[in-house]
Design brief:
- The complex is a heterodimer of chains A (about 130) and B (about 280).
- Chain A is built from 8 helices and no strands.
- Chain A has about 130 residues and is mainly α.
- Chain A folds into 2 domains: about 10-90, Protocatechuate 4,5-dioxygenase, Chain A; about 90-125, no CATH class.
- Chain B is α/β, with parallel strands linked by helices.
- Chain B has one domain: Protocatechuate 4,5-dioxygenase, Chain B, CATH 3.40.830.
- Chain B has helices at about 15-20, 30-35, 40-45, 100-110, 125-135, 160-175, 205-215, 220, 225-235, 245-250, and strands at about 5-10, 50-55, 70-75, 80, 95, 115-120, 145-150, 180-190, 255-265, 270-280.
- Chain B has an 8-stranded mixed sheet, with helices on both faces. In chain B, strands 4-5 form a two-stranded antiparallel sheet.
- The relative contact order of chain B is 0.23.
- Classes of the chains: A mainly alpha (about 130), B alpha/beta (about 280).
- The interface between A and B is large, with 58 and 46 residues.
Chain lengths: ~130, ~280
C-alpha cells in the first residue's frame, strides 16, 4: 500500500495498518464514554485494562499516559481523547505532552501563532 | 420547492464548546474568537433556515472502530448530544428532518454516492459546536438539522473533489424536494491543526488563507488538492477541511462573501469561518 505521508515529521497517519494494530486499544477508549465504565477504570486501571485483548505495550502506554506510545501502538487521538477526558484534561494538555513541552510553553506557542510550517513539512527539511 | 439559501463553514473545536458551556466566552483568551460570530448570529436570525444540512465528522463517538462509514446521513427524528468522556454537552436535543433526509439519501444514492443510512446516532462536538457558535445558547435549536457525518479520521477520507461533487448533487436533491423549505448547507472542521505527535500545534496561516480564497473563487481547482497536501501543510487533523467543499459544491459558481473570519489560536487550532451566498 502506497504511503506518501511517511516523510511528514512528527506525524502518524491513522491508516488501515494503524487501525488494525490499534483496534483493541481504541475499542477500550470507546468504552469510557459510559460513566459506569469510567468509574470502574478509575477504581482499578490495571484490572479494567485486563478485560480488553490489548497488548502489554498498549496497556503500559495507557497506564503511563504516554500518548506518543499509544499512537505508535495504533491509537488515534480522537479515541485516546476519551482517556484524557476521563482524567478531566484537555486536548491542549494532551497535545503538549506529546511535544515534550510544558502545557504553559505549548499554550504560549499557540498564542504566538502556533508551530510554524517552516522546517516542519518534510523529514530532514527536504523540499 | 426547497432551495439552498446559503452556505456556512466553521471550525468545530471542542474547547469552544467548553468555553460556551462554562461561561468563558468573554474571557480575554476567548473574546476575540467569539467576536467573529457576532455578525453571524445577527445574520442568521434574519436569514433563519428551516433546515441545516450539517457536514461534520464524528470523533469516535457514534462510530466505533467496528464500523467506519465514509458518508453517513442521519435520518432519525432526533439526535442526542454524545457523552465524549466528560458527560454530554448541556445543549438541546437536535431535531432532524427525516423526510428531507430520506429524500436526499435516495437522490444521492441514485446519483452514485453510496451513503450509509443512520437511524440512531448521538452527535458529538463536531455537530453541536457549530450550532452553538451560530445560535448561542437557546432552550431549543431554532431549526431542524440533518447530520451528515464524513469519515476524516481513518485514512483515506473522501477526496476534496468527491465532497465537492457530492455538494453539487445535494443541491439538485434539495431543489427536487416538493416542500417549500429554506436549506442551508454547513461544512465544519479545520482549519490547520495537528493534535498528535511531536508536530502537534502546527498552524499554517498561508495555507488557510489560500484555502479560503480558493474555496470562494476557484472551488473546482481547490477540489483537485490531494490528501497529502492537506496532511503535510494543514496538519494531520487539518484534513477535515475537505468537508468545506460539500458546502461549496451546494452553492453556485459565483458567490458573495457575506462574512469571513480567521483567528489563531482556538486551543490547538486555527479557527476559520465563512458565510457565502449565491450571486443573484
Amino acid at each position: 500500500m502506497e504511503k506518501p505521508y511517511l516523510d511528514i515529521p512528527g506525524t502518524t497517519v491513522f491508516d488501515a495498518d494503524q487501525s488494525r494494530r490499534g483496534y483493541p486499544l481504541n475499542s477500550f477508549c470507546m468504552s469510557l464514554m459510559k460513566a459506569d465504565n469510567r468509574a470502574r477504570f478509575k477504581a482499578d486501571q490495571r484490572a479494567y485494562l485486563d478485560e480488553w485483548p490489548m497488548s502489554e505495550e498498549q496497556k503500559q502506554a495507557v497506564l503511563a499516559r504516554d500518548y506518543n506510545r499509544m499512537i505508535a501502538a495504533g491509537g488515534n487521538i480522537y479515541f485516546l481523547a476519551k482517556i484524557f477526558s476521563t482524567d478531566g484534561l484537555s486536548f491542549q494538555y494532551a497535545a503538549a505532552t506529546m511535544t515534550g513541552m510544558s502545557q504553559q510553553e505549548y499554550a504560549q506557542m499557540m498564542l504566538a501563532g502556533g508551530r510554524s510550517p517552516e522546517g516542519n513539512l518534510y523529514t530532514g527539511g527536504k523540499r | 420547492m426547497a432551495r439552498v439559501t446559503a452556505g456556512v463553514t466553521t471550525s468545530h473545536v471542542p474547547a469552544i464548546g467548553a468555553a460556551i458551556d462554562l461561561g468563558k466566552t468573554r474571557d480575554s483568551y476567548w473574546a476575540p474568537a467569539f467576536a467573529g460570530f457576532d455578525f453571524s448570529k445577527a445574520w442568521i436570525a434574519a436569514n433563519m433556515p428551516d433546515v441545516v444540512f450539517l457536514a461534520y465528522n464524528d470523533h469516535a463517538s457514534a462510530f466505533s472502530p467496528d464500523l467506519v462509514p465514509t458518508f453517513a446521513i442521519g435520518c432519525a427524528e432526533k439526535f442526542e448530544p454524545a457523552d465524549e468522556g466528560w458527560g454530554p454537552r448541556p445543549v438541546p436535543t437536535v431535531i432532524g428532518h427525516p423526510e428531507l433526509a430520506a429524500h436526499i439519501a435516495q437522490s444521492l444514492i441514485q446519483a452514485d454516492f453510496d451513503l450509509t443510512i443512520v437511524n440512531r446516532m448521538d452527535v458529538d462536538h463536531g455537530l453541536t459546536v457549530p450550532l452553538s457558535l451560530m445560535f448561542g445558547q437557546p432552550q431549543q435549536w431554532p431549526c431542524r438539522v440533518i447530520p451528515f457525518a464524513v469519515n476524516v479520521v481513518l485514512y483515506p477520507p473522501p477526496s476534496g473533489k468527491r465532497c465537492f461533487r457530492l455538494g453539487q448533487a445535494l443541491r439538485r436533491a434539495v431543489e427536487d424536494f416538493g416542500e417549500d423549505l429554506k436549506v442551508q448547507v454547513w461544512g465544519t472542521g479545520g482549519m490547520s491543526h495537528q493534535l498528535q505527535g511531536t508536530r502537534a500545534g502546527l498552524i499554517n496561516k498561508e495555507f488557510d488563507q489560500r484555502f479560503l480564497d480558493q474555496l470562494i473563487a476557484e472551488p473546482e481547482r481547490l477540489a483537485e488538492l490531494p490528501h497529502i497536501d492537506y496532511l503535510r501543510q494543514a496538519g494531520s487533523e487539518g484534513i477535515e477541511l475537505v468537508m468545506w467543499l460539500i458546502m461549496r459544491g451546494a452553492l453556485g459558481a459565483r458567490v458573495r462573501t457575506t462574512h469571513r473570519f480567521y483567528h489563531v489560536p482556538a486551543s490547538n487550532t486555527a479557527l476559520g469561518h465563512l458565510i457565502l451566498e449565491d450571486m443573484p
